[in-house]
Amino acid sequence: MTESQLEPSNAPVEPPRRSAGRTIARNAVFGFIAQTLVRIFSFLFQIMIVRTLGGEQVGQYGIVLSWTTLFAVLGDLGITQYLAREIARDARKSSELFWDVVLLRGILAVVAAVVTTIGAIWRGYSPEIVLGIALYTLTYFLSAILIPLSSIIYGNERVDITSLFEVIAQVIFIAAGSLFLLAGLNFIWLVIASFLNFPVLIGLSLWVIRRNNFGPPRFSYNPRLWGAIIWAGLPFAFIQLALSLSFHVDTIILSGFVSELHVGWYSIAYGLSMNFVSFTRAFNAAVLPTLARQHANAPETVPPWYYRSVKMMVFLGLPIAIGGMMLAQHAVGFLYEPVNLPAAIAFAIIIWDVPLLMYTAFCGNLTTSIKKERVSMRIYVSLAIFNLVINFILVPRFGIVGSAFATVLTDGFGAMQFYFFFRKTFGQGLGLKYMLRLVFAGVIMGLVIAALVTSLNWILVGVISVLVYFGVVWQTRAFTPDERADIANLFGRLTRRFAMR
Asked: What HEC string does 341-408 produce?
């Protein structure tokens, strides 16, 4: 049985029901606000974790998260991402696939929990880490219910709702975790806090789905479809596995060569840099379902979204990378008093992964939207292999510094592959001269930081350098006239709405 058997025969694709631009803008704005709140809460909570638990327990907690996330793909095999994409293209798919996906995920959760826990014992982790891993596998079972429900909401292009749920989940986790930390409990209780939000989110998802008439469909299942569903989800499963390896194999390899304290330093640097990437998750999440619908109805509208999105990511990513590298020691020393220089050195390197990861994450979602997920699968699998090899080469010699370089080199390799694929698919259109002007603005920003950082407060230097960067970008006309007009119109609309309110 193949994926084609899951398609309704002679079923016409629905005509466009909504403006792609307005839908993406709505979902991106809600998502950006949600990600901002989540990042602020998470950032403050991360500081609390580091200062309360110390580097060693932070390292233990990082190992638990990395190990369980790595094996979580066994509990999904890509079928929920496939479900979300199919619902976005044709809403009738929810009634055909939902319960089969839920039942499949329940079965896979059992397999994943057993493999994850036994693997941790075989790996030789300490009893505390094994206990944390075993407890965290409970999220596999809860996700078997929650993620398919979220896929229905997400597939119907209500990313604004799923973004709100992310905030709620994070607030519950931080509230419970803070109470446990203030009570003097260890990192195991952070693991327990991580799945306390699931019952609340499941209830909220059911309420939203029923209120908006999205379903859920009446209980029915067809085991004869299960093979086809798994086959259709395999490209997404390989992507998930490859991404998990890319994001978490460094921590696992590090744990075999350095102490848990060093792993904690690396986790601090990596987590701090990923705070910046999270802001673009809102846009990436908003793009996937809407561009999937657009590609089904008007594929010619997709390339312009690619060109402008990539340029905006370069515009945002460059100052983050340059400023983060040059102010790393000041920022890390200010935020995490017990761990200063080692984490700062790793952060100064990893921060260059931010613009690369912005681009690769966006491209990965875009390939799904245009039904080219197998291309994305091949790229991400190559990245996983590359990351594994280069970590084994660099980590034994250079520790957390080697792991930081491996992260940047891996995503650089991925960005290069995605660039050439989309250049072949969509043609030229990024505008090299405009990109070079953005790079010039970044260089000027770096020179400003170098000139001021020894004489002024580092936060003030950061603010001044960002303003200089924006000014140079505008004066050198790094954006085309149409893009400048769009930006001016956007700020004009926002200003008018703010004035009216």
From this structure: HHHHHHHHHHCCHHHHHHHHHHHHHHHHHCCCHHHHHHHHHHHHHHHHHHHHHHHHHHHHHHHHHHHH
Query: 25: pLDDT confidence band, cut at 50, 70 and 90?
Result: low
- Provide the pLDDT for residue 448: 92
Query: Which H or E run includes 330?
Result: helix 328-335
The answer to whether residue 438 is domain-embedded is no
* Burial grade of 344 (CB within 10 A; 0-12, 13-18, 19 or more): buried
User: Does residue 7 form part of some domain?
Assistant: no
- Give the chain's domain count: 1
Alpha-carbon separation of residue 167 from 28, 46, 173, 181 (angstroms): 15, 16, 10, 21
Long-range contacts of 293-299 (CB under 8 A, 24+ apart): 293/14, 293/16, 293/20, 293/88, 293/89, 293/157, 294/16, 294/20, 294/369, 295/369, 295/370, 295/371, 296/13, 296/89, 297/13, 297/14, 297/15, 297/16, 298/16, 299/370
| pLDDT band of 231, cuts 50, 70, 90 | confident
pTM score of the predicted model: 0.62
Q: What's residue 5's pLDDT?
A: 40
Q: What are phi and psi of 481, to 5 degrees?
A: -55, -40
CA distances from 73 to 135, 220, 233, 234, 236 (A): 17, 25, 11, 10, 10
4 lies in some domain = no
Task: Please give the pLDDT value at position 238.
Answer: 76
N-to-C CA span, the chain: 56
Q: What is the Cα–Cα distance from 396 to 393, expressed in whole angstroms? A: 7
Q: Tokens 């029901």, residue?
A: 17
Half-sphere exposure of 173 (CA within 13 A, CB side): 19
- pLDDT band per the 50, 70, 90 thresholds, residue 268: confident
**Which of 421-460 are b and which e, b meaning 16 or more Cβ less than 10 Å from the residue's Cβ?**
bbeeebeeebeeebbebbeebbebbbebbeebbeeeebee
pLDDT at position 357? 86
Four-CA torsion 323, 329, 333, 336, nearest 10 degrees: 70
Segments forming the whole domain that contains residue 102: 19-430
Mean of the pLDDT values across residues 239-261?
74
Domain assignment present for 340? yes
Handedness of CA 317, 318, 323, 329 (dihedral sign): positive
Whether residue 207 has pLDDT greater than 50: yes
Residue 275, classified by CB atoms within 10 Å of its CB into exposed (0-12), middle (13-18) or buried (19+), is middle
Task: Provide the 8-state DSSP code for 225.
Answer: G
227 or 7, higher pLDDT: 227
pLDDT tens per residue, range 293-321: 666 666 677 777 788 888 888 888 899 99
